Amino acid sequence: MLTEKDFLTPNRPTWCPGCGNYAIWLALRQALAELNLAPHNVLLVFGIGCSGNGYNFTKAYAWHSLHGRSVPTAVGAKLANKDLTVIALAGDGDGYGEGLNHLLQAIRGNVDITYIVHDNKVYGLTTGQASPTSDQGFETKSSPQGTTDEALNPIALSLAGGASFVARGFSGQAQHLKELFKAAITHKGFSLVDVFQPCVTFNKVNTFKWFFDRLYNLDTQAAYDKKNLGSALEQSLIWGDKIPYGIFYQKDKRELTASLPVLSGAALAKRPMNIRNLDKWLAEFS
Amino acid sequence: MSWKIGGEAGFGIKSAGISLGKIFMKAGYEVFDYTEYPSLIRGGHNTYQLMIDSQKVNGVSLAIDVLVALNQETITKHAGELVDQGVIIFDHENIEAKNLKLDKKINLLGVPLSVLANQAGGELMRNVVAMGATLALVGQDLAIANRVIKDTFQSKGEGVVKNNLQALSLGFEYVKKNYRQKFICHLPTKTDHHNILLAANEAMALGALAGGLNFYAGYPMTPSSSILHYLAGVAESASIVVRHAEDEISVINMALGAAHVGARAMIATSGGGFALMVEALGLAGMTETPLVIINVMRPGPATGLPTWTEQGDLQFVLRAAQGDFPRIILAPGDAEEAFYLTAEALNLAEVYQTPVIILSDKFIGEGNSTVPKFDTKKIKIDRGKLLTEEQLKKIKDYQRYQVTSDGISSRALPGMIGGLFVANSDEHDVYGFVSETSSDRKQQVDKRQRKLETMAKNLPEPPVHGNLKGPKTIVLWGSTKGPVLDVYNSLPAEKKAEIKILQLQYLWPFPVDFVAEILRKSSKVLLIENNNNAQAGQLIAQETGIIIKDKLLKYDGRPFFREDLVAALNKL
Q1: Dihedral sign, CA of B276, B277, B282, B283?
Q2: Over residues A115-143, mean pLDDT
Q3: How far apart, in whole angstroms, are the C-alpha atoms of residue B376 and residue A278?
Q4: Distance from CA of B457 to the nearest CA of A (A)
Q5: Which residue is closest to A108 within chain B, CA to CA?
Q6: Interface contact flag, B415 A40, Cβ < 8 Å
Q7: Which parts of chain A are beta strand (E)?
Q8: CATH number of A4-285
C-alpha cells in the first residue's frame, strides 16, 4: 500500500513557511497514493515559477519545462505513452499568462491529462507582480497604481471552451483538495483544477482568511448538478462576497488517446521499433 | 528539354506537370521540376517548369524549349525565355502571340485547348490537352501517358479517367495532324529505370517513416507543409501519431514530451516557425532529449518571400537558443540524400540525446526529381544508450545525467521501475535535481559539450564530387549541389578535371580538419551559396581561419539557374 511518503524525494521544499503550495503538494501525494499509482508510472510536468520548483521534492518521473509550456509537453507525453498518469502543473502567470492558448487547445483535444494550476493571483518567484488572475486595482511592483485590467476567469473560460472537467480547489481545504485531485486524475479526459493557494509573501489581499470568508463548496450542495453546463457557467461567474469552489462541471466526452485509431493496442512508446517497409507508400511516386 | 507551363492558380498547372514528369520518368528519362507561385490560392501568376534529360538533372535553366501558355500573361512574361526555335503551345482562339518582338525564331503551335478540353468534358482539362500536344511534339506515343493518366485519376472514378484520356488524345492528335516535323527535340521511349518522382519534403517524411518515426507534430508553414500533409495522410497506415498543434511553440514542446517518454519524434517548419521553437530547442539540449527538427528554408526575415527559396537560416540555426549546448546540423543536397539523412537523423538524435536540425529549402523541398527507389536495407535503427527495464534493474543508484567520458549518459524512460529522474530545464545534478553549485554546473556543461567531440569523431566526412584531385575547389551546401553538379557535368573534360566540389553535408559539428586541408591545398576556391551573407563562408572562417574571397551569392528568392553558374564555373 502506497502512502504520501512514497512520493517524497530527499530534498526539502523551498517554499515560504505558510505557502499555499504545501497543501497542494500534500493533497497530490495523498491522491496518488490512494489511487495506488506508483511513482514510476506517474509523469509530473512542471512549469516555471514557485509551483514549478515542486519537482525537487516530489518523487515521480518529472519534467521541468519552460515557462507556460507544461500543457503541450504533457499532451505529447500522454499521446506517446497512454499508460502513464500524466499531470501538468503551472502557476497562474505561467498557465494563464504565458501559456493560456495551450489550455484552450488542450481542452479541445481532451487528452486524458490533469492540469493543476497553483493560483495565488500574483507572480511569486519573480517577487510579486500582478498576474492574469489579479483582481482589478491590485497594487504590485508592476502595477503601483493598481492593475488596470480585469481578472481572467479560468473557470468560465474553460467551461466556454468545452472542457470536460473543471474544478476549483483551495489550499485551506486539503482533504477536499485531495478528493478533487482524485476525481480529476480518474476523469477520462482533460481536467482542470484551479487551486487558490494564498501567497503569504507577496499577496496581502487574497489571504487564507479572505478565501475562508468567501468560499462555499459546490460539492456539498445536494441540489447542484455538475452535469449541467448552464449551472456551471452561472456559478463560474459568481465573484465577490461569495465564491464557489469544488467540481463545477464534469462530462463524459470523446477522449483522444482512447479514440485515435493509431493508439489502439500497445502504447506508442512501448511498440517495437522496426524499419518500416515502404512499398505501400512508394507506389504513389512511381 | 526545358518545358514550362504557366497560368493562374487553380488551372491545374502543377498536377499536369507532375503527370508529364512521371510519363518521361517511365520513358527512361530523368526529370526535375520547379514551381514559381505567389502566396495566394486563386489567380496570380503561376509557372511549373520541368527539366527532362537523359542524365541526372537537379536544377533548372532560365531558358525554356517549350512554353505552354494557359493565359495571355504567360506569353507576355515568358516568351523571352524561349531558346531559338523554341515552341509556344497556346490557344490561338483566345490568346494573342503574333506581335512578339523577339530576336529569335519561335514556333507558334496554336492548339484550341479550350475547345478540345470542352469536347472531352470540361474546360479544366486544358492542361491535359496541352500534355497530349507536348507528347506529340517530342515524338512520344500515348502508351505510357495513358497508363499514368489512369493511375492518376483512378480514385476519381471511371468517368474522370475516360474524359482525361480523351483530352490527352485530342491534344496529341491535333498536333500530329497539324504540325508535322516542326520541332527539334526528339524524346523517344527508352528503358524504364523504375525510379520514383518526389520532392525532398516527401523524401524526408518517408525517411523518417522507414527509420521508425512514431510521433510527428506540426503547424502549417510554407514550404514545409507538405511534410505535415504527407505524414497526416499515412498516419493511420503507419500507425503513428500526427498532431497539428496550435502553434510552433506547442509543436516542439509536445514533441519533446513524446520523445521524453520514448517516442521517435520529429517536427518540421520554416524559419519563422523555427524562431518560435528556439527556447525549447535549448530545452532539448538541456534535458538531453532526442528530437529531429526540419527547417525547410524560405527567404526571411519575417514573412519574407513565403513561396520562394533561400539558404538564409544557417547562422540562425547554428546559434539559436541561449547558452551552450550540443546540436547536430545537416543539410541534404537533394531528395535522395534527404531520405537517408532523415532516417539517420533519428538515430543521431537518440545516440547523442540532443536536437538534430535538418536544413532543407523550398527549392528541393517542393521540387520533384527522379531518384532511385529508396533502399531500406541501407537504414538501421540505433537507439543509443536507451536502457531496457532489465538493464535498468541491474543499476543501483541510477543517474540519468551521469558524467561519462563520451558525454552521453544512459537513458531511462518514464514508466520504467528504478529510473526516476527529473528532466530539468534548470541546471541540475546527475539525477536532474536543481543545482546551482559551481562544480555541478561546470561538470554538466562539460559533459554535454563533450558530446560534440564524440560526434566529431563519429560523423561522416563531407562528400566531395567531381575530380577529387582537381586543384580548384567549389564549396557549397544543401540544394545548390544539384544546379552546380548539372553545370559541372556539362563542362569540357579538361575543365572538369581541374575542379572538385566540396559539399558541406554535416555542417555542425564542423569538419574542421577535413575542410581546412582541402581549402589550404586548393589553388582556387569558389564559394556558392543561396544567401546574401555567405553564411557557410562565415562558418568556415570561424572554424578554420580561412576566408574565401571568391563568392557567388544569390538571394533574390530564386535558386541558381544554369545560366547563373556557367560563366562562373568556366572562369574558375
Answers
A1: positive
A2: 96
A3: 8
A4: 26
A5: B246
A6: yes
A7: 42-46, 61-64, 85-91, 114-119, 122-123, 129-130, 165-170, 191-196, 215-217, 243-250
A8: 3.40.50.970
Q: How far apart are alpha carbons B136 and B114 in whole angstroms?
A: 18
Q: Model confidence at B43, in pLDDT bands (50, 70, 90)? A: confident
Q: How confident is the model at residue B349 (pLDDT cuts 50, 70, 90)?
A: very high
Taking CB atoms and an 8 Å cut-off, how many pairs form between chains A and B? Answer: 192
Q: Which of B240, B274, B466 is nearest to B360 (CA)?
A: B274
Q: In angstroms, what separates the C-alpha of B251 from chain A's closest C-alpha?
A: 8
- Chain A closest-CA separation from residue B415 CA (Å): 5
A273 touches chain B (CB under 8 A): yes
| A263 touches B: beta carbon within 8 Å | yes
Cβ contact B262–A80 (<8 Å): yes
| CA atoms of B522 and B548, how far apart (whole Å) | 11
Question: Which chain A residues are Cβ-neighbours of B229 within 8 angstroms?
Answer: none
Instruction: Give the per-residue pLDDT at B100.
Output: 82
DSSP assignment of A224-270 equals --TT-HHHHHHHHT--SS-EEEEEEEE-----HHHH-GGGSSS-GGG
Which residues in chain B touch residue A275, judged by CB atoms under 8 angstroms apart? 210-212, 376, 379-381
- Which pLDDT value is given to residue B34? 97
**Which pTM was predicted?**
0.97
How far B392 CA lies from chain A's nearest CA (Å)? Answer: 13
Third-level CATH fold of B197-378: Rossmann fold (3.40.50)
**CA pair distance A84, A73, nearest whole angstrom:** 13
Alpha-carbon distance values, B160 to B133, B164, B372 (Å): 19, 6, 31
CA–CA separation, A153 vs A244, rounded Å?
13
Is the pLDDT at B181 greater than 80, yes or no? Answer: no
CATH classification (class only), B2-194: alpha beta
Residue B328 pLDDT more than 80?
Answer: yes
Task: Select from A57, A2, A80, A35 the least CA-distant residue to A184.
Answer: A35
Residue range A167-191, pLDDT digits in tens: 999 999 999 999 999 999 999 999 9
Q: How far is B61 from chain A (nearest CA, A)?
A: 24
CB pair distance less than 8 Å for B383 and A273: yes
pLDDT tens across B220-258, in order? Answer: 999 999 999 999 999 999 999 999 999 999 999 999 999
Residue partners of B367: CB distance under 8 A and separation at least 6: B32, B33, B34, B35, B199, B200
Other beta carbons within 10 angstroms of residue B433's beta carbon come to 21
Kindly list the residues from chain A whose CB atom is less than 8 angstroms away from the CB atom of residue B210: 275-276, 278
- Domain extent listing, chain A: 4-285
Cβ pair A65, A13 in contact under 8 A: no
Asked if the model's pLDDT at residue B184 lies above 80, the reply is no
CA nearest neighbour of B231 among B247, B250, B251: B251
Residue among A39, A78, A282 whose CB faces B196 most closely: A282
- pLDDT over 90 percentage in chain B: 95
Q: Which residues of chain B lie closer than 8 angstroms to A276, CB-CB? A: 209-210, 212, 238, 376
Contact between B236 and A261 under an 8 Å Cβ cutoff? The reply is yes
Average pLDDT, chain B: 96
pLDDT of residue B9: 87
Is A8 within 8 Å of chain B by CB?
A: no
Partners of B106 in beta bridges = B86
Task: Map residue B34 onto helix, strand or coil.
Answer: strand
- Pairing assessment for the beta strands B506-508 and B328-330 based on DSSP bridges: antiparallel
Q: What is the mean pLDDT of residues B117-135?
A: 96
**How large a percentage of chain A has pLDDT more than 70?**
100
Which CATH number describes the domain made up of B464-571?
3.40.50.920
Instruction: Tell me what ipTM this predicted complex has.
Output: 0.98
Q: Looking at the predicted structure, is the pLDDT value of residue B442 above 80? A: yes
Domains B2-194 and B197-378 belong to one CATH topology: no
